[in-house]
User: Which sequence fits this backbone?
């Protein structure tokens, strides 16, 4: 069981991620606008959107039921639990009993299950198709995610994300090539999970992928948008926490934590900038052919597994 | 206080008695429904009472009674594994019996008494089967189980059911023959049919392998593993829903039990490749089972395919356990078997729940086709709630029970990947990735099942006018839903019990897998999991967004819950919404080769062709016998008849002459 300090750390890091999430989506939007040679909204636009949405009326179609109502909260709750379990500022996972890579992967699955289901729950034309696409993407991304994390876990002998992070941070790396390839493959999976082209276009609600959002309004939509922003920053934090944990605090000291927090912001910002660059250079593709692209990610993950077997 | 064996005997006798009394009441269907239901409840309570102490203590109780022949030693061995199986059976039968009080009324006037008879006989044979320790009785009860379930499959007597029953009958008996072959090898080497002698048998390595593979295929056919699964998605849906729940929740586990019995208990899992074989078949079954489930439109067929998937997951655990025993890694052996046993219990609970839910839908909406349902969450709220819990549990979502057992299976596979030679290093991660793919596909599959059936707009009159199922059925489903939650949250209590059974199977000392509210794979450095803590966090976290919504509320209008979904300005129509087939279409497109594989691997047409060929062959052989034996004999007889025909003139004077002649002859004989 975690001590009080550790538990507080978990709460604080989840709160920080939650508060920062809209800034980073704002940065993505600004980047996109710049690359489109538009003026675009300010970085804080997403906060303004959220506050405005909270004041609006909740509207739900007659066909919708309990799943539709609870989904934004389930999404946010599961992402907050993951946020508490990740090694964000520290090398160890603050809540190790939820910081297992299997548990984290299935907490993402919990969010995805409800997100898809809410699309069907409205009886909306867009929602249903979006639900199908969201689930399909889960099928395509989950093996890559698990395999790339697994290679790192096998090398370090623990499936605890904090354990892997600690081992990498202290330079305990037996198969550097395998780790690097796993890093690339996991980055690919993170890119998909962040909802970027050609897999998704998160800002456009009338896109089928974001179909489940179609029928939300008011505070439900605000919570949902905030939850999705949180999901993006959580996968980014997971990426840097597991594979680039350098600079994270080994012990609980104020100085170490502040330094780690600053480094964390820089790392996550880099991830967001890189994904924005990639995304805006991408064209859309046919959804049914997505699997041809995701095979690349899975191929890299498999290659890292082969390197691990060879001990390179 | 009755001993566990007495209770077990009571349980079997109550089920058998219930079966025959139901048969006697064939004049009154209603009476037989109540009698068989009450027998089910009482018998399963006795079964639960018998199994719990043995399961907790882990000590085997044996009873021997010499039969009239040397091969019929009636030996009972109620060990931890048998007690576990009895517990799983009794648990599900208890709930299914409560459910049957209302559900079977649908069959009133259509032979509900026969259903009561066969269901109770089916359960009695399963309970007796797991406890006997003699190959002769084992096979007798195995056969009884197959036959009584066969009659449940063909209960509806329509063409589909009869055909499914026929395929089931063929494959079940092909499996029995293979098992018979395996036991024959043991008998040949030991000269006894007692399992205790089988355990002592020192089979040579090739013979042991042959015995194992025969038993694996034979029991695997019963368990519904790929490629021997094709009967399962036809037979299970054809039976009445509470019987489908028992067949999918319990009967397939008898197959798994048989594999553990022969592979682990009798043969001691001495060879590594046996475990690898079980693991590989398990992984393939898991992925293909769920993939085929995903594209089904029939609720019960979808659930039956998902049973193939879950049997695959269980077999993966069994495989890891056998590998662990073969390489003398007791921790690995216990972890693998722990995952398998835990998932066996969990699958019985959630698959039972889902089949009972499907039964409630059929009871009210009179269709199994998902395309004709929809919107049932409003008309059947409790069924929907229980079904949602079951769907989440089977998709292995934390913190429910399916997640915990799959987590243990993952950890066992991970342990295997870090220990041992290259083969284990390689196959472990491959199996983990296949399990991950299975998890994602299962999630998609059950989003579709729940979403298309319970959400959105009703797609037919039946769905629109459905209403909540009767109280006993709702009670049964809610009990199982509670079971899903309890087995997930109670992991720190349940896992050590499963570990105890697993370690008694693997002949190892007790291995700790729980500390306080935490479970771990016998090594806290490898991983830890606390479902109670995750639940608390998941329940507490929404406070934050709710708080924010309250703070930033401002002058907000109250929630509006009316109107149709947006349809680009057109009038919304239920037909605009994605259909069940459309939902699964991306998966069908992306995994197209695996779907073609199913057509190619389907054994029912070769089986049918083989049967037709043997019928034709038999017909031809029959005519051979005719031409060469029967016809000549007939010809001789005919000729003889013709020869003596001239004696028969039809003139009574000639007959008088015969009489006189006969008298004369007799006179001469007696005098001389």
Assistant:
């Amino acid at each position: 069981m975690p001590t009080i300090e550790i538990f507080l750390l978990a709460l604080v890091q989840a709160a920080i991620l939650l508060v920062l999430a809209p800034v980073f989506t704002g940065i993505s939007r600004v980047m996109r606008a710049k690359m489109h040679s538009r003026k675009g909204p300010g970085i804080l636009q997403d906060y303004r959107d959220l506050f405005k949405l909270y004041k609006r009326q909740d509207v739900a179609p007659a066909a919708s039921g309990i799943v539709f109502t609870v989904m934004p909260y389930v999404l946010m709750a599961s992402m907050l639990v993951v946020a508490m379990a990740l090694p964000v500022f520290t090398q160890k996972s603050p809540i190790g009993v939820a910081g297992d890579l299997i548990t984290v992967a299935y907490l993402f699955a919990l969010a995805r299950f409800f997100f898809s289901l809410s699309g069907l729950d409205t009886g909306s034309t867009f929602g249903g198709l979006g639900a199908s696409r969201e689930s399909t993407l889960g099928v395509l991304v989950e093996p890559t995610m698990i395999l790339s994390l697994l290679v790192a876990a096998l090398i370090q002998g623990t499936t605890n994300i904090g354990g892997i992070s600690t081992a990498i941070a202290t330079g305990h790396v037996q198969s550097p090539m395998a780790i690097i390839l796993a890093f690339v493959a996991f980055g690919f999976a993170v890119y998909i999970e962040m909802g970027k082209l050609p897999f998704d276009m998160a800002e456009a609600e009338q896109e089928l992928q974001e179909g489940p959002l179609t029928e939300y309004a008011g505070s439900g939509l605000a919570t949902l948008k905030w939850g999705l922003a949180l999901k993006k920053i959580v996968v980014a934090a997971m990426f840097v926490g597991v594979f680039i944990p350098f600079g994270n605090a080994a012990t609980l000291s104020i100085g170490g934590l502040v330094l780690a927090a600053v480094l964390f912001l820089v790392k996550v910002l880099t991830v967001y900038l890189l994904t924005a660059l990639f995304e805006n250079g991408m064209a859309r593709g046919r959804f049914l052919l997505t699997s041809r692209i995701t095979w690349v990610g899975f191929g890299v993950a498999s290659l890292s597994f082969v390197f691990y077997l060879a001990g390179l | 206080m009755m001993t566990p064996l007495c209770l077990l005997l009571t349980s079997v006798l109550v089920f058998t008695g219930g079966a025959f009394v139901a048969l006697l009441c064939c004049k009154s269907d209603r009476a037989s429904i109540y009698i068989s239901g009450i027998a089910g409840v009482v018998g399963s309570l006795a079964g639960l009472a018998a199994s719990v102490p043995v399961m907790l203590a882990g000590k085997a109780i044996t009873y021997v009674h010499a039969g009239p022949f040397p091969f019929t030693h009636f030996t009972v061995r109620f060990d931890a594994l048998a007690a576990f199986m009895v517990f799983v059976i009794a648990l599900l039968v208890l709930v299914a019996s409560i459910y049957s009080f209302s559900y079977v009324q649908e069959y009133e006037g259509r032979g509900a008494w026969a259903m009561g008879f066969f269901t109770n006989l089916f359960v009695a044979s399963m309970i007796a089967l797991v406890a006997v320790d003699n190959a002769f009785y084992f096979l007798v009860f195995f056969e009884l189980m197959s036959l009584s379930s066969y009659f449940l499959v063909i209960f509806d007597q329509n063409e589909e059911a009869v055909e499914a029953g026929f395929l089931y009958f063929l494959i079940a008996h092909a499996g029995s023959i293979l098992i018979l072959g395996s036991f024959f090898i043991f008998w040949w080497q030991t000269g006894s049919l007692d399992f205790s002698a089988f355990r002592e048998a020192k089979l040579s390595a090739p013979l042991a392998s042959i015995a194992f593979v025969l038993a694996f295929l034979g029991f695997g056919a019963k368990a519904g593993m790929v490629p021997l699964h094709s009967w399962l998605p036809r037979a299970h849906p054809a039976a009445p829903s509470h019987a489908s729940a028992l067949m999918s929740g319990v009967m397939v586990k008898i197959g798994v039990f048989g594999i553990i019995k022969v592979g682990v208990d009798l043969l001691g899992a001495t060879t590594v490749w046996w475990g690898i074989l079980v693991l590989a078949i398990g992984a393939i079954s898991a992925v293909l089972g769920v993939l085929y489930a995903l594209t089904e439109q029939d609720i019960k067929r979808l659930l039956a395919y998902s049973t193939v998937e879950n049997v695959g997951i269980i077999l993966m655990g069994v495989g890891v356990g056998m590998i662990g025993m073969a390489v003398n890694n007791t921790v690995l052996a216990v972890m693998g078997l722990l995952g398998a046993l835990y998932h066996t219990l969990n699958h019985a609970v959630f698959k039972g729940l889902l089949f009972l839910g499907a039964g409630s839908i059929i009871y009210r909406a009179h269709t199994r086709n998902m395309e004709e349902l929809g919107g049932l969450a409003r008309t059947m709220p409790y069924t929907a709630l229980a079904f949602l819990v079951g769907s989440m549990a089977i998709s292995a979502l934390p913190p429910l029970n399916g997640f915990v057992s799959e987590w243990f299976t993952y950890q066992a596979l991970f342990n295997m990947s870090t220990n041992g030679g290259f083969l284990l290093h390689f196959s472990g991660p491959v199996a983990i990735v296949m399990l991950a793919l299975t998890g994602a596909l299962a999630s998609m599959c059950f989003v579709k099942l729940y979403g298309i059936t319970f959400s959105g707009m009703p797609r037919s009159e039946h769905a629109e006018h459905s209403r909540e199922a009767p109280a006993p059925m709702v009670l049964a489903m809610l009990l199982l839903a509670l079971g899903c939650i309890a087995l997930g949250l109670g992991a720190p209590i349940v896992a050590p019990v499963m570990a105890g059974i697993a370690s008694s199977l693997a002949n190892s000392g007790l291995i700790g897998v729980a500390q306080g509210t935490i479970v771990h794979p016998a090594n806290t450095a490898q991983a830890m999991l606390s479902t109670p803590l995750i639940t608390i966090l998941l329940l507490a976290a929404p406070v934050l967004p709710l708080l924010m919504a309250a703070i930033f509320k401002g002058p907000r209008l109250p929630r509006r819950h009316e109107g149709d979904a947006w349809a680009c300005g057109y009038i919304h129509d239920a037909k605009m919404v994605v259909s069940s087939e459309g939902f699964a279409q991306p998966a069908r497109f992306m995994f197209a080769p695996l779907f073609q594989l199913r057509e190619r691997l389907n054994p029912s047409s070769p089986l049918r062709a083989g049967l037709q060929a043997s019928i034709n062959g038999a017909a031809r052989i029959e005519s051979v016998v005719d031409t060469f034996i029967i016809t000549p004999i007939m010809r001789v007889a005919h000729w003889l008849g013709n020869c003596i025909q001239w004696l028969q003139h039809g003139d009574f004077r000639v007959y008088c002459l015969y009489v006189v002649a006969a008298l004369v002859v007799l006179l001469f004989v007696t005098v001389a």
